[in-house]
Specification:
The chain is about 70% helix and about 0% strand. By secondary structure, it is mostly helical. It has a domain of about 70 residues.
Length: about 100
């Protein structure tokens, strides 16, 4: 888990000059591979990781809009989860839920 988070930190610095769509594509590659390896982990693993990654994205967007610091306050309203989903973000939690549905049906 720590190695995964460190990799995501390296891919999501707040001042990197790339578009958020490019960053999401880069993070998706790592997230999809990590999920394939750890998809049978405890179900509570995925939702907090998703929130943490989206918080990193919101911090980048704050920086682009000349705001300082990590995401907070109304950033969840400015950039809701659907915003990242529309940009193609691979949700670990949604992937896990899909996996659970397919194994039950």
């Amino acid at each position: 888990m720590n190695k995964f988070k460190e990799t995501i930190r390296r891919k999501t610095p707040r001042s990197n000059g790339r578009s958020i769509a490019e960053i999401i594509d880069d993070v998706n590659k790592t997230s999809e591979g990590w999920f394939q390896y750890f998809k049978h982990s405890h179900w509570k693993t995925f939702k907090p990781l998703n929130g943490w990654i989206r918080r990193r994205f919101r911090s980048i967007l704050r920086r682009y809009s000349k705001d300082k610091g990590i995401s907070r306050d109304r950033d969840n309203v400015r950039w809701p989860n659907k915003f990242f989903q529309d940009l193609g973000y691979f949700s670990l939690y949604d992937a896990h839920q899909t996996l659970l549905q397919s194994s039950r049906g």
